[in-house]
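Re: oxa(dethia)-CoA structure - here you go.
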Amino acid sequence: MIRSRILGTGSYAPRKVLSNKELESMIDTTDEWITTRTGIRQRHIASDDEPNSLLAAKAGRNALEMAGLSAEDMDLIIVGTFTPDMPMPSTACLVQAELGAKRAGAFDVVAACSGFLHALAIADKFIKAEPTQKILVIGSEVLSRRTNWSDRSTCVLFGDGAGAVVLAASEEADSGVMSTHLHADGRLWELLTVRGLGTSCMVDEDMLKQGLHYIEMNGREVFKHAVRALESAAMEALEANGWSGEDIDLLVAHQANIRILEFLRERLGLPREKVFINIDKYGNTSAASIPIALDEANRSGVLKPGHKVLMVSFGGGFTWASAAVTW
Ligand code: UT7
């Protein structure tokens, strides 16, 4: 049986760090509120000359290096993002040029915070259909450019960064990507959205004045849906693989709120050390959060061959997804 396997991971975060303390001097908030309500202590912020594609390419290069492959070995580059450099071309095309991945096709996937798992699921199916394919899968966001810095209910949450994996076929039946599941409920789109910059409204002064180019979120409602959807995504993945909570070696969930991660940990009956947490350092980086966490877990030696890894995400759309991987 052909399975796709992660040959290398990589990540990149912009050098500039914005701490909760610094936010205290910008808006009416406190380090204590942000830390206890979200688990976030700081976030990375891209500088003006760092577009999404640059972050994505750096993460991609790191993943290729670990995989021992060159950009020219890649058949496809898929970038999960909702903060592209521009509406056209795709960020993936700009990454393809930046890396010199001459043979690779390239496209973006828009599924907000579930973007990376959607991209991973597509790449997994590609490889099963065409086992010679080698695919660079990236989740990358520059959320700071879509953040309303005067809205304290959202601006403390988000950060910029990118993570990547290199995927290729493996003949080993009991390792690699074991399952992927994707879900959406578009009826609830207004609870988490960037209304402007698309074709449903004109880009004009009025639109900018209303701040429609910024992320809007009904945090309390999103929270309720997120915990339910993440739990159901996790249960679906366990069931599909005949795994129980006890089988999981590492839960790598979207880093949106430490309280959501704690809820998931309890529902799955996991000890604290089996839940990977780096929200304190990066905040919510949307599609980048899972691949950044995966890369940190991998490089720090937390992940070991044979480990059962469960990834789950939830985001705007709504979208939610899972991937079960035997490392
Ligand atoms: O990545 C996609 C998925 N995203 C998520 O899953 C995010 C889900 N939502 C959340 O994580 C949480 O809802 C938030 C962290 C966004 C907000 O936490 P909360 O506990 O739901 O707070 P809240 O919105 O219910 O607000 C509670 C209070 C309010 O004050 P009053 O009305 O009780 O007086 C807010 O005005 O906290 C106030 N507040 C703040 N206070 C200090 C809201 N933001 C801040 C802030 N600093 N930054």
